[in-house]
Amino acid sequence: MRIRLAQRLRDRRAMIAGNIERRLEGFPHLAAVVALIGGFLVAPDITAGHTQRLSPFFTTAAQILVTLLVAAALFQGLPASSISYEVRRFLGVTTFVYLGAGMVASVAALTDVLPVGGYRYVFAVTLSGGAGALVALLLAGAKNITEQRTVDVGEMARRAAAPLAKDPSCRESER
To answer: Max Cα separation, the chain?
Structure first.
């Protein structure tokens, strides 16, 4: 009876977790759109000859985006398992598109070939790419922790039940 109750509780938790995950799958896209609009609205005005004022921002953004790319690549290198499949669901092609767009925009801003008005656009695209990729990676990390915990709990339950299975005095109805 306890085993059935525990199984029902696990099934209920899995259903709730699945509902939350479905709602969160679009969150990286929402974060990217909000960052794009917000970045465009708050981008500093750059006049001719003052483009170096934003150089530290774009340099740092490029470094952070490359670091996020490494993290995304490490998630993709997980061995094949049910956990890695669930983690990779959050790290689709769009995550790499966000990273690529942000990196290209930040590197383009470091060159002095952009017109003065173009910095507003690359600022917004850099923020958007970073926000979309960061949210996707955070969700993938949270999913990884959740899946690992589920596997760990199952393993602990299996180990705890092993002595009971060997004990002849335990009846099936008591478990």
So the answer is: 86
